[in-house]
C-alpha cells in the first residue's frame, strides 16, 4: 500500500469529525493560553477599573476569556475545512449530466446541440 492511500484513510475520520475535533482542540488550546497569559489582577489600571466600573471590568474579563477560546476554534475550523476540501477533491465523483465536474463546467448535450445549430445558422446568413 502506498503512503498516500494510508494518509487518505487516516484523514477521512479527521475530516468527518472536524467540528468535534475543532471544539476539543480549541478547548485544550484555550486552557494552555489561559495558563500562559492570565489576566494580571495586580495591574493598577485594571484594579481602578474594577473599583470604578465593575460591569465593564467583568465584561472585559469575559471577552478576554472568550477570545482565548474562540480564536483557536476559528483556526482549527478553517484548518479542518481546508483539509475537507483537499480530501473531497481527491475522491472521484460520478459523472454528472450538468455542473462542475473535476474543475470544468460541462454543458448538457441539448445545450451543446443548440449552440452548434446557432453557429451553423450564423454561417448560413
Describe, in short, the structure shown.
The protein has 125 residues and is mainly alpha-helical. It has five helices and two strands. It has a two-stranded antiparallel ribbon.
Q: Your description of this structure?
A:
This protein has 125 residues and is mainly alpha-helical. It has 2 domains: 3-91, no CATH class; 94-125, no CATH class. The protein is 76% helix and 5% strand. Strand 1 and strand 2 form a beta hairpin. Helix 1 crosses helix 4 (54-90), helix 2 (18-36) crosses helix 4 (54-90) and helix 3 (44-52) packs across helix 4.
Overall geometry comes to: rod-shaped
Give the radius of gyration: 27 Å
Question: Widest sheet: strand order?
Answer: 1-2
* N-to-C order of helices and strands: HHHHEEH
- Secondary structural class: mainly alpha
Number of strands: 2
User: What percentage of residues falls in helices of 4 or more residues?
Assistant: over 70%
Percentage beta strand: under 5%
Major sheet details: 2 strands, antiparallel
The overall pLDDT, averaged over residues, is: 78
Number of domains: 2
Distance between the termini: 61 Å
Low-confidence stretches: none
Annotation field: number of helices: 5
Which secondary structure elements does this structure contain, and how are they paired or packed?
Blueprint: H1 3-16, H2 18-36, H3 44-52, H4 54-90, E1 99-101, E2 104-106, H5 109-124
Antiparallel strand pairs: 1-2
Helix pairs in contact: 1-4, 2-4, 3-4
